Amino acid sequence: MGSTQRASDPETTSRFRETVFDSIFDSVLLRLAAAGVVFVALGAVLNGVTLGGEGELMGLWAAIFAVWGSGLILVGLGLYSFVWWRRR
Fold first, then answer.
1. What is the mean pLDDT of the chain?
2. What are the φ and ψ backbone dihedral angles of 30, each rounded to 5 degrees?
3. What is the mean pLDDT of residues 37-60?
4. Whether the Cβ atoms of residue 74 and residue 29 lie closer than 8 Å to each other
5. pTM for the full predicted model
6. Which of 87, 85, 72 is nearest to 29 (CA)?
7. Closest CA to 83 of 28, 46, 41
8. What is the pLDDT of residue 65?
9. CA-to-CA distance for 55 and 40, rounded, in angstroms?
10. For residue 35, with 0-12 CB atoms within 10 Å meaning exposed, 13-18 middle and 19 or more buried, which class applies?
11. What Cα–Cα distance (Å) separates residue 33 from each residue in 16, 29, 62?
12. Helices 28-50, 56-87: crossing angle, 10 deg rounding
């Protein structure tokens, strides 16, 4: 019997992380915002690929993914905030 807890013990895991993931998985609007984050990240990766030289088409797709991702983030978080505000 030791007096110290291990980091892998269930009591020491972060409750904040669990509540954030639970709220994202339970809400369609937060999933929409998370998809927007993925789109923006994909646009950033595609933009990094185009910095090597050729590939103007990749730059176009990088811009498209970034714009769509930003829109999804704004719509998802905006509508989630509105619904949260109306329920309070």
1. 82
2. -75, -30
3. 80
4. no
5. 0.72
6. 72
7. 28
8. 94
9. 19
10. middle
11. 19, 6, 18
12. 160
Of the candidates 72, 73, 43, the one whose C-alpha atom is nearest the C-alpha of residue 58 is 43
The token duo for 53 is: 């030289």
What H or E segment, with its residue span, contains residue 35? helix 28-50
Q: The tokens 């291990």 sit on which residue?
A: 6
Instruction: Give dist(CA 28, CA 35) in Å, integer.
Output: 10
The single residue listed with the structure tokens 């807890």 is 5
Taking Cα atoms as reference points, which of 38, 26, 43 lies closest to residue 84?
Answer: 26
Contact 61, 46 (CB under 8 A): yes
What is the enclosing helix (H) or strand (E) of 12? none
Please report, for residues 4, 40, 47, the alpha-carbon distance to residue 64 in angstroms, rounded to integers and kept in the order given: 52, 9, 11
How many Å apart are CA 46 and CA 66, to the nearest integer? Answer: 10
CA distance linking residue 78 with residue 53, whole number of Å: 38
